[in-house]
Design a protein that fits this description.
Blueprint (H helix, E strand, L loop, with lengths): L10 H13 L4 H10 L8 H4 L6 H4 L1 H6 L17 H4 L6 H13 L5 H18 L23 E4 L19 E4 H11 L5 H11 L6 H4 L2 H14 L14 E2 L1 H29 L2
Parallel strand pairs: 1-3
Antiparallel strand pairs: 1-2
Length: about 280
């Protein structure tokens, strides 16, 4: 089966939504600093820079390679426990990346450029860690890690336009060869078939969570929470007998979309709170 290129958490739409919703929750002090730090960006908003880290593979290959492991952590969904030496060797994982970049952002002795880059990383990685398959990864029948669903092949029937080049050559109605990670990165939200602004308005109406210190949590808590959702929310398709399914369509996408939207809204609330505290 053909495979789509390696995808990124939530695709451009998902990250845009997290940034856009978070911006509406900023305090005046945080908003002032965000505006100053993003001055000169093509789109100087949290939504506008939310996908920047995904573009580093082409815009800055060296930095893209250096930070490639910062987008995810592969916790075992059967336990969802964070063991730093095992799960994040060399501090190269999304949990430690969020904490490290937040420290740079908070440090006013750093250069404005260093803090700008840190802000863009924080916006992106908090979005990443709320995508279940960026925090949980199963083993296949042979005991090999499936890389957060990247190696779990899917034949997908959907009216949503494919996310890979060559889509125009696809026969209409033909299933799309992809993988489960891409289903969650791209198709789950895109299949709502809403323009970004309308989707943001819908999620805003659904409600941005009001956080307590307990529900705010830490980067570790967010990853563990996402990992637990892999099994609790049935992210891996299965039949009534619990057997893995590799052919899915609109029924699966529709059933899981509310959970995906919940993760986006929660990511936005936590991002806003982190920026409000860090930039106060």
């Amino acid at each position: 089966m053909l495979a789509a290129p390696n995808a990124f958490a939530w695709s451009h739409l998902g990250h845009w939504l997290v940034g856009d919703l978070a911006q509406t929750q900023l305090t005046p002090a945080a908003q002032q600093q965000v505006t100053a730090l993003l001055q000169g960006e093509p789109d100087p908003t949290l939504a506008g820079v939310a996908s920047w880290a995904d573009g580093l593979r082409s815009s800055d290959p060296d930095l893209g390679k250096k930070t490639s492991k910062w987008h995810y952590i592969d916790l075992d969904p059967q336990h969802c426990e964070y063991r730093p030496p095992v799960d994040c060797p060399g501090n190269d994982c999304v949990i430690e990346a969020i904490d490290a970049q937040r420290k740079i952002l908070a440090d006013t002795t750093q250069t404005p450029e260093a803090r700008r880059v840190a802000l863009k990383f924080v916006v992106h990685f908090i979005g990443d860690v709320h995508q279940p398959l960026h925090a949980g990864s199963r083993q296949d029948a042979e005991g090999h890690d499936d890389a957060g669903g990247n190696k779990y092949q899917i034949s997908l029937r959907t009216a949503t336009p494919p996310d890979f080049q060559g889509a125009k050559r696809r026969v209409p109605g033909e299933p799309i060869p992809t993988n489960l990670h891409t289903v969650w990165d791209y198709y789950e939200l895109e299949s709502a078939m809403l323009a970004p602004e309308k989707y943001a308005a819908k999620l805003q109406q659904d409600g941005i969570p009001k956080l307590t210190p307990q529900t705010l949590g830490t980067s570790v808590d967010w990853a563990v929470e996402s990992c637990k959702g892999v099994n609790a929310q049935g992210v891996y398709p299965a039949d009534s007998d619990g057997q893995p399914q590799h052919k899915i369509g609109g029924t699966y996408l529709d059933a899981k979309r509310a959970y995906a939207e919940e993760r986006v809204r929660l990511a936005a609330a936590r991002l806003a709170e982190v920026l409000n505290e860090t930039l106060k």
